[in-house]
Amino acid sequence: MEAGLSLALPYVVVALDVTIRVLAVIFVPKNRRPATATAWLLAIFFIPYAGVIAFLLFGSTRLPRRRRLKQTQINRYVMEATEGIELATEQPTWPQWFASLAALNRRLGAMPLLGGNTARLFGEYDRSIHEMTEAVRSARTFVHVEFYILSLDTTTAPFFDALDDAVRRGVTVRVLLDHIASLRVRGYRRTIRRLKRMGAEWHLLLPVQPWRGRYQRPDLRNHRKVLVVDGQVGFMGSQNMIDRTYDRWTNRRRGLRWKDLMVRVEGPVVAELNTVFLTDWYTETNVVLEREARQTVAPVGDEDLDCQVVPSGPGFEGENNLRLFNGLIYAAQRRIVLVSPYFVPDDSMLYAVTTAAQRGVEVELFVSEIGDQAVVFHAQRSYYETLLKAGVVIWLYRKPTILHAKHFTIDDEVAVLGSSNLDMRSFTLNLEVSMMVRGRAFVNDLRQIEEGYRRASRRLTLDEWQARPLRTAVLDNVARLTAALQ
Predict the structure, then answer these.
(1) The dihedral of CA 366, 369, 372, 377: what is its sign?
(2) How do residues 131-177 score in pLDDT, each as one tens digit?
(3) For residue 95, what are the contacts with CB-CB under 8 A and spacing of at least 6?
(4) pTM confidence score
């Protein structure tokens, strides 16, 4: 009998192998973009068993149903609560295409376009932490803190001290931090102990704790960076609350230091940033903060910027950040400047960027000369030749600084900035928050920051790129195969 089983075993293995491949062809492409489906099929066909396990763990880009339902509830509430609000009525000075893109954002992300705002940019790492710290020190009623990475270290200690002081004054301090991202950096336990000791209300974002019944695809992460003080002042952008070396000895050995961009806003748009926080708080706690949700903010200042917050992620249908970005790129008539540490576009964005360059729009892309994530860095580089041939100017921010800012400008009218990279992970897997701003004064300020990047960068030429070593080109192309899964 044992001999019979031994003879049958190879046939069982072959049958199982064929079954896996057939089922993969049937089920993997369902509701997935072709590039993603192809990448998963390649993994399953070349390494069937490991590929299937990886697909079961990481194949779904959807959050658990209860989380998606909560996001839908919040969207419906925001749409109803802001019905008829016209704080940013269409003006003759608006670009012809602007109103339609604001309507797109409203339909997909629920937030209306709001006028009467002021904004101030901070491109220096320590300065932005100082400004956020001072805002917390002025708090009277509440402080809402939400960061992808929140870590207590020598750089961020003053911020934590300010939170501690706020609690002692009777200010309500609520804190959200992404579980996996914060867990991976040094000082996680120290950070949690400090939050507990000061008496802040805190919760983990998207916790991966199956023993507590909390689980979803592990790399679906909340990548947002938001601070709201009293509902009057808001901060958002690309910077995590951590030392600019990310407190890693490997980064210090390489001399890596991060450069980010944060924006401080006042005016009605602060209520939209607060709504993003309240949504994530409700999702994690099942608690609706009704008083804070009803709060409105009057227009302020003389800049009168039109602003619209764009929340995005797997809780939304249709990749609304990608749709906005593509719409803006296609709308541009004169100039586009893109800044992203991770530029791994899907086909639609690659076509939008290259088409803009080919129709005569001046297109510039700022990326880092070196990378902090090897696979993503090489995948990004695989797009350079296509971009250069289309006429895109690529600037490499000189090492050892990692240009981590995430923003872009369209002509002299509109800018977008926030936590979203221009890559497939930010379009599909991460919860992000961006802000679209219309106003020449703000765009001019951002142009000055772009000029600072230009002075600190070198231009990549097509001749230089085509002369790169063969081994580097092979690495880039292999990494690109994984781009749809990152």
Answers:
(1) positive
(2) 999 999 999 999 999 999 999 999 999 999 999 999 999 999 999 99
(3) 331, 411, 413, 414
(4) 0.89
Q: Which of 187, 262, 267, 189 lies closest to 227, judged by CA?
A: 262
**Which range has highest mean pLDDT (101-115, 211-225, 260-274)?**
260-274
The percent of residues in the chain predicted with pLDDT above 90, rounded, is 64
The residue ranges of DSSP E strands in 25-106, in sequence order, are none
Q: Kindly report the CA angle at 184 between 179 and 187, in degrees rounded to 5? A: 95
CATH of the structural domain 320-485, one choice from 1.10.10.400, 2.30.120.10, 3.40.50.300, 3.30.870.10: 3.30.870.10
Bridge partners for 375 per DSSP = none
Fold type of domain 65-90+116-305: Endonuclease; Chain A (3.30.870)
| Tokens found for residue 85 | 């609000």
User: Is 375 or 61 the better-scoring residue by pLDDT?
Assistant: 375
Is the separation of the CB atoms in 328 and 363 below 8 Å?
Answer: no
- Please report, for the chain, the start and end positions of each structural domain, with discontinuous segments joined by +: 2-58, 65-90+116-305, 320-485
pLDDT at residue 135 in the model: 98
Cα(391)–Cα(355) distance, rounded to whole angstroms? Answer: 10
Identical fold between 65-90+116-305 and 320-485: yes
Residue in this structure with the two tokens 């600019």, named with its chain if needed:
244
Nearest to 450 by CA among 306, 343, 336, 355: 336
